[in-house]
Design a protein that fits this description.
With 376 residues, the protein is an alpha/beta fold. The chain has 13 helices and eleven strands. The chain is elongated and about 85 Å long. Bound molecules: guanosine-5'-diphosphate-alpha-D-mannose and manganese (II) ion.
Length: 376
């Protein structure tokens, strides 16, 4: 059977290919030729219409020169040499934009993602209608060859964090995979929503395209054949920031922590410096914290950017925070009046009591987490 972009057809008929294999490279001169050869062999054996698109960031070791030579004798191979750009995620997104296939498969150049799995990824999408198919190390039958226990633990911990904080990540056992297939038109139609950052393009796609149908194929991640990994400490730090960026709950908590500091600082100033009463100071502190939270949740957590209706959201935010407001004040008042607790400490404990109430109320009532996107 021969496949092309329209489903079934003859290989070599000049139509868009069924699959574009996008291979990002940076200093992979030692291995890129072999990788291209293996990908080509597997896809030709299966009669799948394909192109191979290498996106190289002007590698100092001349990876691009090798690919350029190959592309001159093999029309299945294309090179995009980016000059003055650097970064795995943007390279992959550029590759997806330039690709012509109905499906795009992203894979590493270093043969850690063995090409023999390509037919399974394509078959899964074609036969079962998935928009995204993840090659997963953590699905039954998958694995990693030659990793230390520490590296495995870090990887699993990072995966768990993603699943905890990012809803879309729960659709696959390996949201951190760098080896995956996507339907090109779906990604392109949502491309403005994607913020490429760091290494984790798949995670970004899973998070932003919430309605994607996601399947997976187990695979074994192999040791690098040549060259060395570009994944260092900065990449890990970037990852944590990325997950936070994708998680409304995490952002809400960070904003709330800032609001807590504002709340307590204002109360402290009014109570101890200005000499006002504890009730007035407490209420002014709570309101200051609320305004702080509103501004940052509007701008960052829920990315509403003071668009139309922000006054209504401000009012709704106050209404939905009324329970938390009252809880904070009463906790402070009772603890400080009847139990001899310092009023600032009482206020702090009150804030903790109010936090959960506030998140639930404002996520449902003010910003409608997740719902707008799903219905549009
Ligand atoms: N164009 C471009 N620009 N390519 C890059 C860049 C860059 O800045 N940085 C890395 N690459 C290419 C590498 O040449 C390689 O082909 C691929 O991206 C992955 O880089 P590695 O340095 O080999 O990453 P890794 O093996 O540590 O991590 C891989 O496996 C993980 C587990 O599946 C990546 O695929 C991760 O995304 C993945 O999570
Ligand atoms: Mn690698």
């Amino acid at each position: 059977m021969r496949y092309n972009a329209r489903g079934v057809g003859l290989a070599g008929s000049g139509e868009d290919p069924l699959v574009s294999v996008v291979i990002p490279t940076f200093n992979e001169a030692e291995v890129i030729e072999q990788t291209i050869a293996e990908v080509r062999a597997v896809l030709e054996r299966e009669g799948i219409e394909y192109e191979i698109l290498v996106v190289d960031d002007d590698s100092p070791d001349g990876t691009w020169r090798i690919v350029k030579e190959i592309s001159e004798r093999d029309s299945h191979v294309r090179l995009y040499r980016r000059i003055g750009a650097r970064g795995l995620s943007t390279a992959i997104l550029d590759g997806i934009k330039l690709a012509r296939g109905k499906y795009v498969i992203v894979m590493d150049a270093d043969l850690q993602h063995p090409p023999r799995y390509l037919p399974q990824l394509i078959g899964k999408a074609l036969n079962e209608g998935y928009d995204v198919v993840v090659a997963s190390r953590y699905a039954r039958g998958g694995g990693v060859a030659g990793w230390s226990r520490l590296r495995l633990m870090i990887s699993k911990g990072a995966t768990l964090l993603a699943k905890l904080l990012v809803r879309g990540a729960r659709k696959t056992s390996d949201p951190m995979s760098g080896f995956f297939l996507v339907r090109r038109d779906l990604v392109l139609s949502r491309v403005e929503e994607l913020r490429p950052r760091g290494y984790k393009v798949l995670l970004e796609i899973l998070a932003r395209i919430e309605d994607a149908r996601v399947g997976e194929v187990p695979y074994v991640f192999e040791p690098r054949r040549a060259g060395r990994s570009k994944l260092g400490f900065k990449v890990m730090l970037d990852y944590v920031i990325h997950v936070i960026e994708l998680s409304q709950l995490a952002k809400f908590a960070i904003v709330g922590a800032g609001g807590t500091v504002v709340n307590l600082a204002v109360m402290y100033l009014l109570l101890y410096i200005a000499g006002l009463g504890k009730s007035v100071s407490s209420i002014a502190g709570i309101e200051s914290g609320l305004l702080w939270n509103f501004v940052f949740n509007e701008m960052w957590t829920f990315e509403a950017g003071f668009r139309k209706g922000w006054l209504a959201r401000l009012a709704a935010y106050h209404a939905s925070s009324a329970g938390g407001f009252l809880a904070t004040f009463l906790t402070m008042y009772i603890l400080s009046t009847y139990m001899g607790v310092n009023p600032i400490l009482g206020q702090f404990m009150g804030i903790l009591v109010g936090f959960i109430v506030n998140y639930v109320a404002s996520s449902r009532g003010v910003w409608r987490i997740g719902r707008e996107r799903q219905s549009s």
